[in-house]
Amino acid sequence: MIKSFPLLLLAVLINLPSWAQIGVGAEAPKGADQLFNGKKRSLHKNWTYWEGPRLAAELPIKWEIVPDPVDKGTAVSSNDPAGAGGKYGAADIVSKQKFTDFRLHVEFLIKEEGGNSGVYLQNRYEIQILDGDSTDHGMAAIINEKAAPYRVYNGVGKWNAYDIRFRAARFDDSGNLSEKAMTTIYFNGEKIHENESISQVWGGANSGLDGGRDGGKGITNRPGGIKLQAEGHEVLFRNIWVQRLNLEEPDTDF
After folding, report:
1. Neighbouring C-beta atoms of residue 178, cutoff 10 Å
2. Do residues 161 and 105 lie in contact, with contact meaning Cβ atoms separated by under 8 Å?
3. In this model, does residue 96 exceed pLDDT 90?
4. Is the full-model pTM beyond 0.85?
5. How far are the Cα atoms of 46, 57, 59, 93, 140 from residue 54, in angstroms, in the given order?
6. Range scoring the smallest mean pLDDT among 17-31, 97-111, 136-150
């Protein structure tokens, strides 16, 4: 029995569902779309600038493809010149594909202390990237709503991973909001948010879809892309993939 245990464990691992693969280096499961693989072609094929009210950048995307400072390969830097000075919305990039419910994997590396960016779900709800901040506006927070344990962060100069399962807001037959958006998030393989409802879009019209409607509370049923924020900081991204889901029940746990 003892000798057979490794084989049994291997069999269990082989038969794990694809969504169980989390953390830095997680590979896209079958049926998922690789939104960014480190290559320039992938960037320009799958992404564009978000055309918000503060847009100051012009295509083609100016986010630079740079050598991966830790592993072999390349990554993309969010340090777009148009975003200098923390002007979010001036040079943010958004996936050309739009989504409702989905499973998302994003890897990021902050090169300097205080580095700031963000991952936006449906181009609405920001999951913060901010070195040095453990508040509800800080690292891995559902911004301004739910803080995350800062100890999970690997630190400056190291790769980190968000694994996110997201269910979009629901609306009744009259178009009124009936169920808020919901998410479960793993940070570097540790669950930090479980079935958390998201109340609104924060940051105003320059932040994302519906940010300018009723103070960010006027959520609509428009699908939205995955957005990455440019705020004039050297934050790198790699290995971004997404899998479309259809979550009928209000449960995002995985």
Report:
1. 11
2. yes
3. yes
4. yes
5. 22, 9, 15, 13, 25
6. 17-31
